[in-house]
Inverse folding.
């Protein structure tokens, strides 16, 4: 089956799941997104691109930004990053303080909130404005100069910052945050509030499918080994407390966000982005996971 | 043995312990206190008062203030207080986030930091300025109009607020803090930074020895039952993670602070204050606990 | 009010609570006990004794036995006991493995199951048959040669031993159990399954009211200081995860069991036993706690 | 580079790591294994086989057996297995009771001890003797009729069973173990004590490289989807608390044992077994992980 037919088939097959689940409502700016959206985009290493549904509608990438923040930090700091954040699955909720307390303020991995906050703090230590740098890279990688921070979402996150503020203050009390707590939080929320479409996301993900060198960019951004590490982390820790289940069902490195987006990587072949706002109980897009599972089943592609 | 001789004997007996241990150094303002101070004061229900050593030197009462904040809250709010804070020993460090997370932001008791922060939040909800009210009551109860907040200490606490900020933000994320986090912290640090001498402290404690009615004040401040509850809490939760050991060795309701002060209550008879800045591993004054243990051994007084 | 009238008044006042709550049903042998029983006994240091209701009916003392096992261990081993068990409130369920794992197999105190299992192991190390010794002492202290182990209950406990077996094996893996797991469990269940009446229990408790020397026995069994330590432990850790609440409401050292019995101590004055099988959510006799609260309210007696 | 040269190069490169680390000594039978052993075997889907070093010496496969027990359970029970054990990384030590208590006796995955004990219990429920069945399958898959249980090791495990007994009794108390605790433990220890060489292990692993159908066996043993699930689990949970690090460094599904063996899978291509008894701090063979890392680096093979 060719990719266009494949996308058609998936699009129809997932309709019963679109709008099922619960749109993230912890901040008002997200709660008002219509639940019945669905978009998907494939971006291949050879330059081909296939989209379906609402693939050109920008949405809040939320935790998918954790991949890009990490990529930027690896580009700037190399393996230094791993001095202050681990690489292991957490076995706890994405915003839990328990393991953080038992492990003296060292987050388990960069894809739980605490870990992404430390990565943000690293970036603040080596850049005047990490958000501008991140946007610059995303705009180049996607050829979309319109990628921006949705300030309404960022302000809403800031308003409801208590849980993340608790994490950041706690880590600062352990010496694992160096900038001011407010600055770390503001920057972190800016990254979470970046608005991108499925088309944008799949294009940006090509960096990881290409093992650090996107065919869309002139320069290598990560070493081959760093890119593989990010892929490995996405597989073991990319979908909150459902990483094992995602590996079972989809069998690809993936990173989800509560905005309903998921980025998945097929090394050497393509990058896939899918978006549908209604979430399952673990916080992953219900129709999105379903679409990816069908994709790997129908194509027989899986890293396993 | 009469009380003056008793104090003399204790004073000499504890000398080997004075200065042993470690002065609290988590904030600079406390770290500079000389370790070799020792004062003790007995304040009896019948009006007699006996002091020895540095009993008239003001020190930072720190967590002993948690007793006074609770007393003020019970006076203002009655049993409503217990809607948002428990009465059980915590079995965890005084500033742990673990139990707080497992129990959805309801602190175990008002004598761990999280609990005192909730009590402070209650006070902010029913008073324009709880610190002024607290000072007013302490000044009346001690006949010492000079009792004040040591602003240098309060500022130093504020500078190093991260752990307490983590606790407060976390509880706010659970809906158990209503005022702004900064206002709660500022007020809490003011209470911790109140400077009082042993003489002051013992006088203030008479309220609890008198079951809610201090012979030094015109009005009943707590009901008999409320006062007993505070005494019960001091016994089960008053000395951090060493409440059981304190009950074993001293056998009295007591509340300690990292400034080196301890307030102990002998119901119907007297209130005792002791101060020596060097702390044992659990954060209680080493010479202070020793002095209280000798007092109860020599007099045979114990609630057990 | 004289004690007989007092008991009458309490007896009538608690009737609405008798049978309320839930009879322990984790083993069949306990589940069949009628819920509507209520007995109470006061045993004074001066020899007077007052009883009401089902005060002469034997029941399964369950966790109240933890006090007697500890008393026997202190008599045989002195302060050595504290090498392998702590003295602090646990802040966790009576049969939790969590704290035990974080603290390397050292139980928080001798009144949670893990702690009593270690005390039992100590006894097995210094006695051929601790159950026979315990019964001998209880028979002397109560003048009741009929006190015995209810073998049906003990067998039922053994049948349902998995949770306690988990605790014991875990501690053995940490090196904190020396005898065989099965022998420790068997002996522990024998102690839990001792059947005594309220009259018996109050008589046996006189040892603690008398600070180690019961007026009913010829010899001193504990030092004054050991007896006070047991009383302190009963107050801080005697009623499962409701020790703070019990201290609030009753204000006396007490130890409860899931058989519905509670032993409470008024130092220097008397020992009180109460029994009613229906339990509140924390595992304490609902009518029993109510009766003790009324007793201390009506008499004004409280250690606070 | 051809495979024989590759193995030669790896063999020499890892020599500095051979014997570094610590041979498992929790049971005497394992502690006496010489630390300086090293063997490696490649078994390709096309029938080729390459070995080096001590590749024909049998060793105790220990936790690698958890893969085979799971495979057998999936063959017999299908997806029913997942009713009583999860698929998520644990974030805790392999023998921790903490998460088990918080999650009511449902183990996080089948590769921590608790999970493998539940799998064993499942097998006991659908087979007269799971050990005989497991050996039968292993003998067929490896063409080695000599594969057996090392009874000395099994007895030694039984002798030191306390931690595993605690896990099993705990789960039984939660209703998640149906057979007798002793029977589950005996069977579990038999599986851990199976002795196989690298050559055997790699041959057996071909089932997973072949997605459920080993070229060495006549029948399909798992569905394609089941085999991928096992591979996914090996990647996310296969190397104790170092799964993330293993995914980073090696980038293949792998399962290690404290006997020093590791089985790794390259889907569709080959199965690799490596053995060297000295372990790193996380319990994985130090030279073994090093050898696998070099293998994937030199060949450029990785699932990422």
């Amino acid at each position: 089956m060719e990719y266009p037919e494949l996308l058609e088939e998936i699009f129809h097959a997932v309709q019963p799941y679109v709008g099922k689940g619960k749109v993230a409502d912890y901040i008002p700016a997200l709660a008002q997104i219509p639940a019945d959206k669905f978009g998907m985009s494939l971006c291949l290493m050879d330059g081909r691109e296939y989209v379906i549904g609402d693939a050109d509608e920008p949405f809040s990438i939320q935790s998918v930004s954790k991949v890009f923040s990490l990529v930027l930090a690896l580009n700037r700091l190399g393996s230094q990053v791993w001095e202050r954040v681990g690489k292991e699955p957490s076995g706890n909720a994405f915003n839990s303080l328990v393991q953080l307390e038992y492990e003296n303020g060292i987050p388990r991995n960069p894809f739980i909130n605490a870990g992404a906050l430390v990565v943000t703090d690293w970036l603040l230590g080596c850049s005047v404005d990490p958000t501008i740098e991140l946007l610059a890279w995303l705009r180049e990688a996607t050829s979309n100069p319109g990628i921006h921070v949705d300030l309404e979402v960022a302000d809403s996150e800031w308003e409801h910052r208590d849980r993340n503020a608790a994490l950041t203050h706690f880590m600062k009390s352990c010496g694992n945050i160096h900038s001011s707590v407010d600055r770390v939080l503001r920057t972190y929320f800016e990254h979470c509030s970046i608005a991108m479409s499925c088309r944008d996301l799949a294009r940006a993900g090509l960096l990881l499918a290409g093992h650090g060198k996107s065919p869309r960019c002139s320069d290598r951004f990560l070493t081959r080994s760093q890119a593989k590490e990010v892929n490995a982390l996405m597989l073991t820790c990319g979908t909150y407390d459902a990483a094992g289940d995602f590996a079972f069902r989809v069998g690809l490195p993936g990173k989800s966000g509560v905005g309903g987006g998921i980025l998945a990587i097929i090394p050497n072949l393509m990058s896939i982005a899918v978006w549908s706002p209604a979430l399952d109980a673990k916080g992953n897009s219900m129709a999105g996971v379903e679409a990816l599972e069908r994709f790997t089943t129908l194509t027989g592609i899986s890293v396993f």
Q: What stands out?
A: The mean pLDDT of chain D is 95. The two ends of chain D are 21 Å apart (CA to CA). The first helix of chain D runs from residue 3 to 14.
